[in-house]
Design a protein that fits this description.
Number of strands: 4
Helix content: 25-40%
Largest sheet: 4 strands, parallel
Strand order of the largest sheet: 1-4-2-3
Structural class: alpha/beta
Order of helices and strands: EEEHHHEH
Number of domains: 1
Number of helices: 4
C-alpha cells in the first residue's frame, strides 16, 4: 500500500488505485464525465493545490532562490489546519490503500507535487519512489 505522485493525464499503473487531482482548475476542454477515463483524475481535491498567487510564483521561478520562495509560500499554505489535516489523512490512508495524487506539470522537480511528496513523507505516508 502506498501513495504515488503522478502527472495527471499520464497512463495509470495497474495498482495505482484512485487518482486525486491536487490542482486549482479542472483540465481544459475535457468533459467532466471523461476526467477519469482520460486518466486525469477520479476525485478533484483543489485544497492541496497552491493558491493562484503561489502558482504564479512557481511558474515564474527561474532561479533556485525563486523556487525556494515558491516552496516556502506553498508550505505555509499547507500548514493551515485544514490543509495539514488533509495531508495527515492522506498519509494515514497510504498505510492501508493504494492511491495517487498529482498535477499537470511535466517536471515534478519544478512542481508543487514535489513539495507535496515531501510533506506526505514527513507525515508518515508510504510514498512510492519517484
Amino acid at each position: 500500500m502506498a501513495v504515488r505522485i503522478v502527472r495527471l493525464g499520464s497512463a495509470r499503473t495497474e495498482t495505482e488505485g484512485i487518482r486525486i487531482g491536487t490542482v486549482r482548475r479542472p483540465p481544459r476542454g475535457v468533459a467532466k464525465a471523461e476526467f477519469a477515463s482520460q486518466n486525469w483524475y477520479d476525485v478533484w481535491f483543489p485544497n492541496l493545490a497552491p493558491s493562484p498567487e503561489t502558482i504564479k510564483l512557481g511558474q515564474a521561478a527561474r532561479t533556485p532562490a525563486q523556487w525556494a520562495a515558491f516552496t516556502k509560500k506553498y508550505r505555509a499554505e499547507m500548514a493551515t489546519p485544514e490543509n495539514s489535516h488533509a495531508i495527515a489523512l492522506l498519509a494515514t490512508l497510504s498505510q492501508q490503500s493504494n492511491f495517487s495524487v498529482g498535477c499537470y506539470c511535466e517536471n515534478e522537480a519544478h512542481c508543487h507535487r514535489s513539495v507535496l511528496r515531501e510533506l506526505l513523507a514527513a507525515n508518515g505516508a508510504k510514498v512510492e519512489p519517484a
